[in-house]
Amino acid sequence: MSEKHDVKKVAELARLKLDEDQIAFFQEKFTTILDYFDILAEVDIDQPLEEKDESMQVTFREDVNVKSDVSPDQFSKFVVDKAFKVPKVIE
C-alpha cells in the first residue's frame, strides 16, 4: 500500500478533506514518525529488567465512585437512551 493511499485513508476516517499539498506534507510527517519505529526496533532489549526502586513511588488517593448531579444529556446533544450516538467511522 502506498504512503499516499495511507494518508488519504487516515484523512477519510478522520473526515478531513486534504488537498495534494497537505497530503504530501502529512506523507513526509508519517514517514518521519515511522522511521523512529525502525530505530526502536534496533534496540537490544534481551537484558533482564533491573529491580524497581519503589521508595520514590507516588502514592495516589483511593479511587471512589461518586454519584454526579450532571447527567450526560445535560452536556451533549448526541445522547440517546443514556448512550452516546456518533457517526459510524469503521468500514
What is shown here, in short?
With 91 residues, the chain is mostly helical.
Strand tally:
2
Query: Shape from CA axes?
Result: flat
Gyration radius (Cα, Å) is 23 Å
Mean pLDDT: 82
| Order of helix and strand elements from N to C terminus | HHEE
Span from first to last CA? 18 Å
> What fraction, in percent, of the residue positions are helical?
25-40%
Question: Structural class of the helix and strand makeup?
Answer: mainly alpha
Portion in strands = under 5%
Strand order of the largest sheet: 1-2
**What is the number of helical segments per DSSP (H or I, 4+ residues)?**
2
What composes the largest sheet? 2 strands, antiparallel
Low-confidence stretches: none
Report on the architecture of this protein:
With 91 residues, the chain is mainly α. The chain has a domain at 1-43. 36% of the residues lie in helices and 4% in strands. It has two helices and two strands. The chain has helices at 3-13, 20-41; strands spanning 79-80, 83-84. It has a two-stranded antiparallel sheet. The model has no long low-confidence stretch (mean pLDDT 82).
Q: What layout of secondary structure does this protein have?
A:
Blueprint: H1 3-13, H2 20-41, E1 79-80, E2 83-84
Antiparallel strand pairs: 1-2
Which features characterize this protein?
two-stranded antiparallel ribbon; 91 residues; single chain
